[in-house]
Amino acid sequence: MHHRILLALLLAMSTPLGLPQHSAYALSVEPQQLIETKASRVYLVESSTGTVLLSKNEKQSFAPASLAKLMTLEVVFDALVKGEIREDTVYPVSEFAWRTGGAPSRTSTMFAALKSQVPVADLVKGIAVQTANDGCLIVAEGLSGSEAKFVERMNRRAAELGLSDSRFGNATGLPHPENRSTLVDLVKLARHLQSTYPDLYATYRLPEFEWNKILQRNRNPLLTMGADGLGTGFSEDGGFAIVASMERNGRRLFLGLSGIATDKERTEEATRLLNWGFDSFEMRTLFKAGEVIGDASVYGGAQSTVQLQTDKPVEVYVPINNPDRLQARIVYRWPLRPPVAAGQEIATLNVLSGERPLTSLPLKSAQSVEPGTLRQRAVDALIEALFFWL
Asked: What is the pTM assigned to this prediction?
């Protein structure tokens, strides 16, 4: 049986951590937002804890437009780190790349000259700073032989990263029926780029870039307020969109926002939400690293329970004047059967503020549990049968 059961954590704590029992389906309740927004979709996350500060239609699919370039650069960064290519590797500018994404296209471009050679380092700058469509196509053809082959690689890599609701049809984000994503996936991708490739990620905050004697300023409107990435986009169904990241006083926030009517409103709304995220929240430590948080029942084991703990502190980023009690819930698949190895990941800790999900963390067994005696297994089997009969 694969029922999921919920345990309340009956622990005496100095912080006001309320721990009543609730339905396992409470996480699906739409939380009351702490701030209103003009955006059709929004997803605001504190990076170190993964705490969700604000969410609205965050899993709703839309055309990401130029935000698809985040995935294009992830593939390039991955190839650079693995040594498949180098920053001084040069790629030719094909007529397809020039016409589709270069000067004749009248789209975002780095103005790479037809039949010229461009180093990967400059292509990365063109894509990150100028959202250059020609840069995307040049690197796609150079790395994979064709844009179509590169797109296959984009989708394979997206699947490896767990971007389950994303699909890409081209390397540029230009209109294509297969270009679809969600803010959850795009923010997850942005967090991955920042944490996995810190040196390459720094390209996103360059204020300007010059190529072919044409200087262009960074297209990210939030750089002047302290953001250090990442990109913007516009599509018919997605409206004006942005994925941004900012660090302030040792805290980093990631914002995904789309469905805004104008470029100006996008900048204003993104600025307002980021400032709110920094000014209205504080960090709270609920459990120390290695602290036993609770236990899980083991059926048919030498012990009836196994203690659960986390490898790192359980921290959440909560409103300074939080009106809701914090709740911590342990969720695992029942029945849990031996053998259980020490350090085995067997449960999840969900932390909520009222009914608003804040973060989820894996829980591991603090000790091993071997199979019990025949009598112990028989007694537990009877209890299990009675539980389901009732």
From this structure: 0.81
User: Considering only CA atoms, which of 11, 30, 24 is closest in space to residue 355?
Assistant: 30
Cα 338 vs. chain centroid, distance in angstroms? 34
Give the CATH class of 41-279.
Answer: alpha beta
Identity of the residue numbered 191: R
8 A C-beta contact, residue 338 and residue 371: yes
What pLDDT, in 10s, does the model give residues 146-202? 999 999 999 999 999 999 999 999 999 999 999 999 999 999 999 999 999 999 999
- Alpha-carbon dihedral of residues 114, 118, 124, 126, nearest 10 degrees? -40
Whether 365 contacts 307, CB under 8 Å: yes
| CATH 3.40.710.10 location in the chain | 41-279
Sign of CA dihedral 75, 77, 81, 86: positive
* Of 142, 36, 380, 388, the residue nearest 134 (C-alpha): 142
Q: Return the closest-CA partner of residue 233 out of 319, 194, 175, 193.
A: 175
Start-to-end CA span in the chain (Å): 15
Name the residue among 48, 21, 65, 11 with its Cα closest to residue 239.
65
Residue with tokens 């500060």: 53
- Asked whether the beta carbons of 5 and 335 are under 8 A apart, the reply is no
Burial of 16 (0-12, 13-18, 19+ CB in 10 A): exposed
Sites in the chain below the pLDDT cut of 70: 1-33, 323, 372, 374-390
What stretch(es) of the chain map to CATH 2.60.410.10? Answer: 3-29+285-389
The angle at the Cα of 353, spanning 352 to 359, to the nearest 5 degrees, equals 40
| DSSP class of 369 | B
Instruction: Count Cα atoms within 13 angstroms, Cβ side, for 278.
Output: 19
pLDDT tens digit sequence for 367-388? 998 886 756 555 555 555 555 5
The position carrying tokens 């767990």 is 162
Dist. CA 41–CA 256, nearest whole Å: 8
Q: For Cα atoms 294, 358, 309, give the angle at the middle one, nearest 5 degrees.
A: 25
CATH class of 3-29+285-389: mainly beta
